[in-house]
Design a protein that fits this description.
Rossmann fold; globular; mainly alpha; 40% helix; 3% strand
């Protein structure tokens, strides 16, 4: 888990990219990568930062406002954690991502999926 509301060093670049585009984010984001790199932690940290009502200049969540409290208690009314009902083999997951990406490209829609593998 991300400690002290800090990102892992290898997540800084993607955080900066999302921060710079925060006014033009799609309604959903697909996070994909190898198991164990912190995708789940990053997704939760990013979600909390978007919901925080008192974020700092770089959009990091304050951890103190009512929104952050609800998020930590897993009771924020605007946050839903979606995860697969069953584990999917890595090759099958990659295949599903390619199919989904093709669908998105054809329909010009953005989507979110966060693998539960950490």
């Amino acid at each position: 888990m991300i400690l002290n509301n800090k990102l892992y060093p290898w997540q800084t670049a993607i955080w900066q990219q999302l921060y710079q585009n925060r006014d033009h984010l799609p309604h959903a984001i697909l996070l994909h990568g190898r198991a164990g790199i912190g995708k789940y932690d990053f997704a939760r940290y990013f979600s909390q930062s978007l919901l925080c009502t008192n974020s700092d200049q770089q959009s990091h969540a304050c951890g103190q406002c009512p929104s952050c409290h609800w998020f930590k208690e897993e009771s924020h009314p605007d946050f839903r954690l979606l995860s697969p009902e069953q584990e999917v083999e890595p090759d099958e997951e990659l295949s599903l991502i390619h199919i989904y990406a093709a669908h998105l490209q054809n329909n010009l829609i953005h989507g979110l999926s966060c693998s539960t593998q950490v």
